[in-house]
Design a protein that fits this description.
mainly alpha, two-stranded antiparallel ribbon, ABC transporter involved in vitamin B12 uptake, BtuC, 324 residues, 13 helices
């Protein structure tokens, strides 16, 4: 095993990523054997629709977890973005492009709010994100008068064009956009001062602070990046599933965090992998589609995801103990 890990190709790609890719392939083969027609285009597109919005959520929370923080508000904030922007378009006559920008702006503002409270007011991230989760649900419910919002269908020639961001004549445009966003996030995290400081915050915050770095600014920036990506995730959610309901979104928090941590991002911060996050999201999305295809309820997928989070975090803890 050690000789494999020392292989030049394995070192470059990453041993954990290779294992995750093998798990993804084996899962797909297993579901294809158990479920007739799982190889079909419809199933693949269904998995991809889930990947797009969950992927942006996971990319965002990767930056937050890399600092040693956490954000449990990402799912409800995504729904808040979709509800307010959609209601503004459908009930107040705002153009589609304005609605899309409003979605991103709301996510950005929640990122600023969370980041400021965590970094400058030093309130624990867990408390801040729990509060933001409820605030997002409340604001969305009040603004939409607790009504669900349905975005225009692709058959609407005037307003349905935004769905081309997800799929255009069967081509998965959303996958191209998501992978491009992941590549940008990887460059930011691995090749810029922003990424270096964010990772250093998770490794040794006090040492970074004593070296003269404004730790509050960089920590807040991680939450701002996360919030902005959550606003984008809302666009892909409504582009794939049309209707958004007030009071929902919690179920996607664990899935996004699971995809992130499964990909190699440490829950205590200091270590993150955007490439691993992408693979982790693919695994989570394939898992939920496979479980539904087998005839099980969505609740089973939630149970499995919860178990995955526990196992992955435990593995991360044990790995760090061995290194120490």
């Amino acid at each position: 095993m050690e000789s494999i890990k020392r292989n030049a190709f394995v070192k470059k790609v990453g041993f954990n990523r290779i294992i995750l890719l093998l798990i993804l392939i084996l899962m797909y083969i297993a579901f294809s054997i158990l479920v007739p027609g799982f190889f079909g285009t419809a199933r693949i597109m269904s998995v991809m629709n889930y990947v797009y919005f969950l992927g942006f959520l996971s990319l965002g929370v990767t930056f937050v977890i890399a600092t040693g923080g956490i954000d449990f508000s990402i799912g409800p904030v995504m729904f808040c973005c979709g509800l307010i922007s959609g209601y503004t378009m459908m009930n107040k006559g705002a153009p589609v492009i304005v609605a899309l920008l409003i979605s991103i702006l709301i996510g950005f503002l929640f990122g600023v709010f969370n980041g400021y409270l965590v970094s400058y007011w030093t309130i624990p991230p867990f408390i801040v994100s729990m509060a933001s989760m409820n605030i997002a649900k409340g604001i969305a419910a009040v603004y939409t008068k607790t009504q669900s919002v349905s975005w225009p269908l692709s058959t609407d020639p005037e307003k349905g064009w935004f769905r081309n961001l997800v799929s255009y004549k069967g081509f998965p445009v959303g996958l191209v956009i998501f992978l491009a966003a992941a590549a940008i996030c990887a460059i930011i995290l691995n090749n810029t001062k922003i990424g270096r400081y964010i990772l250093c915050l998770g490794s040794n915050r006090e040492a970074v602070r004593l070296s003269g770095v404004d730790t509050k600014k960089w920590e807040m920036l991680a939450y701002v990046i996360c919030g902005t990506l959550v606003g984008i995730a809302a666009i892909f959610f409504v582009g794939a599933y049309t209707t958004v309901q007030p009071g929902y979104g919690d179920q996607y928090n664990n899935e996004a965090i699971a995809g992130c941590v499964m990909g190699g991002t440490s829950m205590v911060g200091g270590l993150a992998s955007i490439g691993g996050t992408v693979i982790g999201v693919l695994i989570i999305s394939l898992l939920q589609e496979g479980i539904l295809a087998l005839g099980f309820a969505k609740d089973i997928q939630l149970i499995v995801t919860g178990i995955i989070v526990i196992v992955v975090v435990y593995a991360d803890v044990m790995s760090r103990r061995r290194k120490n």
